[in-house]
Amino acid sequence: MRRLTRRQRIGAVLLTALALLFISLDFAGGSLGGARSGATGALGSLYRGTDTVLGPARRFITGIPDVGRNRTEIAQLQRQNEALRKQLADSAADAATERQLKSLQLQADSADLTLMPARVIATGPGAGFQWTVTVDVGSREKVLAGQTVTDGVGLVGRVLNVYPTTSVVLLASDPRFSVGARDARSGALSLATGAGAAGLTAGSLDDDTQVRVGDQLVTGPAGQTTFVSGLAIGVVTKVHTSADGNASTQIRPSANQTSLNLVGIILQQGRNSARPAITGTG
């Protein structure tokens, strides 16, 4: 910060003394308007000369009372932004839930099924299995172990354990999961098993069957699988033929196994429930 020169300091003292003198004369009724105007101009010049040095500090000091008010306003704006973000997130979640419910209803209508909507409330290993989720319906809603679970698009898995208000679902990607499958193109039957993060794998039951990349696999016909038949399992992404001619395939699941939210349990018995079920009209 630039310091005032000795001459400027002396001048400031003299001008201050003159200003006090003129003020005293004004109170005494003196008529010194012209002199006062000249002194005021001189003081103004001095003020302008020193403001470049003292101005930032002066403005900082005069702005101190506004700091608390500004912080309050900023905090209020932050709270409003958080509320708006929550509203947007809730709206997006509601829209996603509505789309999933419509998908479940469409599946129920097309296959004349009764689906019990269920929301995933926990994920992770459980009951000795690696890939499971917990849903918020149980025996109170007439859910039974072994029932097929879907997301409205494809096969999610099957009910593993049932409790009064929750159920554990074994996902199709679990290495201990298996389901009878049918190639929608050729009609060939195979056994699909979980392969963890890789999805599923399947081996054809007929060595003469030619499986192709892009083939759609669905749950096998009634009597060939304990699952509800006709649900999409996944799409063949890779075919490997061994030296002895046996073909094995890698399958990308139709139902996203890692981002499940709303699912539908296909009820095998009983349609009375504390929660409204989705019933097909076919």
Structure description:
- The protein has helices at 6-27, 33-111; strands at 114-123, 132-135, 148-150, 155-162, 167-171, 178-183, 189-194, 200-204, 216-219, 232-241, 247-253, 262-266, 278-279.
- The protein has two domains: 6-68, no CATH class; 113-272, Rod shape-determining protein MreC, domain 1 (Thrombin, subunit H, Beta Barrel).
- β3 and β4 form a beta hairpin.
- The strands form two sheets. Strands 1-2-5-4-3-12 form a six-stranded antiparallel β-barrel. Strands 6-7-8-11-10-9 form a six-stranded antiparallel barrel.
- With 282 residues, it is α+β, with helices and mostly antiparallel strands.
- Helices cover 36% and strands 27% of the residues.
Counting structural domains, the number is 2
Count of DSSP-assigned helices: 2
Q: Report low-confidence residues grouped into runs of 5 or more.
A: 269-273
Helix content: 25-40%
What is the spatial order of strands in the main beta sheet? 1-2-5-4-3-12
Overall 3D form: elongated
Largest sheet: 6 strands, antiparallel, barrel
| Pattern of helices and strands | HHEEEEEEEEEEEEE
* Proportion of residues in extended strands: 25-35%
Key phrases:
282 residues, alpha+beta, Thrombin, subunit H, 2 domains, six-stranded antiparallel β-barrel, six-stranded antiparallel beta barrel, 2 helices, 13 strands, 36% helix, elongated
Layout: helices, strands, pairs:
Elements: H1 6-27, H2 33-111, E1 114-123, E2 132-135, E3 148-150, E4 155-162, E5 167-171, E6 178-183, E7 189-194, E8 200-204, E9 216-219, E10 232-241, E11 247-253, E12 262-266, E13 278-279
Antiparallel strand pairs: 1-2, 1-12, 1-13, 2-5, 3-4, 3-12, 4-5, 6-7, 6-9, 7-8, 8-11, 9-10, 10-11
Helix pairs in contact: 1-2
